[in-house]
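Try it yourself: sequence plus beta-D-glucopyranose, in.
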Amino acid sequence: MDYASGENELKNWIIAETGFNPDYLGKCEAMMALGNGYLGLRSATEESYVGEVRNLFVAGTFNRFDEYEVTELPNGADITRMDIRINGKRFSLENGKIRKYKRMLNLKTGELTRHIRWVSPRGEELEFVFRRFVSLNNLHCIGMRAEITAMNQDMEVSIESGINGQLTNTGVQHFHEGEKRIFEKKYLQLIQTTTQSKIDFVVNTVHQYRVDGKEVDGEPKMVIDRRKVVLIQDIKLNRGQKLVVEKISNVYTSRDKEYDHGDYSLEVLRKDALFNLKSECKKGYEGLLQESIKKWEEVWEKYSICIDSLQDFDQLAIRFAHYHLVIMTPAHDHRMGIGAKGLSGEGYKGHSFWDTEIYILPFFTYTDPQIARKLLEYRYHTIDGARKKAKENGYEGAMYPWESAWKDDGEVTPVWGAVDIVTGKATKIWSGFIEKHISSDIAFALWQYYMITGDEDFMEKYGYEMLFEIAKFWASCLEWSEEKKEYHINDVIGPDEYKEHVNNNAFTNYMAHWTISKAIDYYHVVKEKKPEVYGRLNVLLGLDEAYRHWISKVDKIYLPQPRQEDLVIPQDDTYLQKEIIDLTEYKNQKHVGSIFRDYNLEQVNNIQVSKQADTLILFYLLENLFTKDIKRANWNYYEPKTLHDSSLSLSIHSILACDLDDLELAYSLFERAARIDLGPNMKSSDHGIHAAALGGIWQGVVCGFGGVRMLNGELRIDPKLPKEWSRLEFPIEWRGNRLHIVVTKDKEKQRLYITRMSNHDNAQAITLEVRGRKYTFKERLMVNL
Ligand code: BGC
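Structure, out:
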C-alpha cells in the first residue's frame, strides 16, 4: 500500500495499491469500498479472481435465512464484474505480464481508479483504466467506466457484463429468484426478493460502448440465465484505438422509506427505478461523478480536520476515517443503524453494537448532530425488542440487544463462534445473553447528545423514555447481597470479552449506577418542568413506582473501589485473583488473537489478561469520578495486561495516555489505532473495515489530542499536541453553535484559538473550561496554554 502518492491538492487524499497480489484481495476490497450510507459496494476488481468477495449491501435490508441462523444483511446482485476477453482469451492479471499497476481511492472525490498496462501471454499489449463511484448525490446510483486501449496490434475485444444475482453471503442464498428483463435491448433489470423478510430489490444497469468517441455498431448478445442477465458485446479494436465502456446502474428496494408503506407495489418500484436510470444515464459517467463530487465537497467543508504533522500519514488517516464514517452511515433513514463493518463486508452480519454509541456517535454528535439524532432514533425504534428481551430474561424495562439489526428483530447475536482449540468445537458466544452494558452505553450516548446539542425535542419524544426504561432494566438486574449489604450485578460480560460470567464488572456497575442516577435526576426535571411528558411516561412506564425503586437502591449499588494498597480497581470480583502469566509474546504479536493459539477461551478466562479496554474506559466516560492517581495506578496495572485484540481498544488507551500526559505513548498508540485498517496486515480487513476503530481515530484526534470533553454538561477543551504535531484544526458543534478550533505549537508554546462560526445577533455567550480555568466568549477566544 502507498499513502504518499497524492500530490499538490491531492496530498494525503489518496490510498493506493501499487502492485497486484491475488492472495490479498480482501484488503483493498474493504479499504477502498465505496458507498453513501444507503448503498455499500465492496471494491472487488472488474475481472474475477478466486477468493474475491463481491458485496453490494443496502442498509437495513436484513433477512433471516432460516431458524438456525440469525438475520443478516444480504449480499445483493453484483454489477461490478466485467469479463473481458482479448482474441477469445480471458483478461486476468494472474497471467501474462503486468507492466504498470496502480489502484487508487481518492478520498476527496469518492472515486476509485485502476491503471494497468498488461501484456497477455500471447503478446497482445493493452492499457486499462477502470473508474467507478457510488453517488453521494443520488443514493441509488453507481457509475463505472472502463477504458481499454489496444497498444501493439489489432485485436478482438469482448465484454461480458450485466447483473449477477448468483452471489451468496458465504454460501447463504438470501433471495428468491425474480424476474429478469432486458428493455429496448439495453436496459437490464433483475428483481430479487429476500426469502424471509420479503424485501424486493430492483437492480438496473445500462451500458454504452464507444471506440475513439464513436458509438459501437452492432448489437450485443443478450443472455438471461439463472439469477443473471448480461450482455456480451464484441468489438474490433485497431492498434492504438481506445474502447470506452460506461456502465450506469441503480438499486432500489421495497425497504426504502419512500416505498415501505401499505400501498407498495413492485410494479411502481420497477418503473421508478428504470425511469431514474434512463434519466440519470443521460448525464454520463462524468456528469454523474461531478454531481457526487459536489456532495463530497460539502462533506469536507463540514468535517475537515487539518493536522500539521511531521508524519503526513496522520492527516491521511483522519481523512480515511471521515470517508468511511460517511459511507457507512445510513444518514438518510432513522430506522437503521451502523454495522460493525459498515457496509464494506459480511463480517458481523451488518449488525450494530455498542461500537455505534461509544465509538462512532461522538463524531456525529460533535459535528453533525442531525445524523447523531437519527442514529439514536434508530435505538428508540428498537425499544420494543429491548423490552421483549428484558421480559424474556426476567427483567423489567429495556434490555438492549447486544447485536441489533432491523428495528423489530430484537437480539440477533449468533450463538456459536470461533473454534475452541481444546475441544475442537465451536465456542459459545455469551454476549447476546449477558453482555448487558450496551444498555447503559446507549443511555450515556443519548445524554451526551442531549448535553452537547441541547435538543429538548429529542429528549421529550424519545430520550427520556429510553433513559427511564434502561434505568428500570438495571434496577431489576440488581441482586441483594445479604452478606455485604449491597446490590450486585452478577453473571455478566464487561467490555473485556475475555472474562465471561463475572460478577460486578466495574464498568458495568458504574455505568448502571450512572444510568439510575441520571434517571432520578431527570425524573425530577420532567415532573417539575414537563408535566405533559411526565404524565405520558408515568402512564406508559409506571414512572413513580420506578422512581421509588431507584431511590431505594441507587446508593446501595456496589461500585468497586480502588484497593488501598495500590489504588487498583478490581475489573470484577475475581480478576485480581487470577493467574498472572508472561504476556510478552502476545503483547508483541503481529496478528490479534494470538493467545488462542495456546489457550482456549475457558483458559483465557482464568488468566489476568484483557481483550480490550475495560475498567479504563470509565476514566474516559466518567472522567471526573476518578483522581489522576487512581487513573495512573489502574493504567499501570491494566495496560500491560491488555492485548488490544479488539479494534475498539487502542484509541481509548491513546486518549487516556493523553489524559495522563504521556504524549509520546499517546501518539504511538494513536498511530497503531490508525493502522488497524491502513496498516501492513493484509488480511485483517477481509471481513470489512473496523467501524468503531475509525470513530476511535476521530476521538483520538479531537477528544485525545484536541482535549474536547463534555463534563457534567459543560464544555472543556484541554489540547495537548504530541511533539510531531505543530497545528491542529477542527470543527465542533456546541449547543447549536459551530466552533472552529485551532491549536498551535511553537517551541513548546501552545495556543488555543476558538472562533464561533455561526453568529446570530442575540447569540448567548459560550462558557468553557481550559486548563482548569473558566472562559466566556461570544465570537473569539485565544488562550495561551
Ligand atoms: C469486541 C466488541 C465489539 C465487537 C464488534 C468484538 O470483538 O470485543 O467490543 O463490540 O467486536 O466490533
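One thing you can check immediately is this: The first helix runs from residue 25 to 31.
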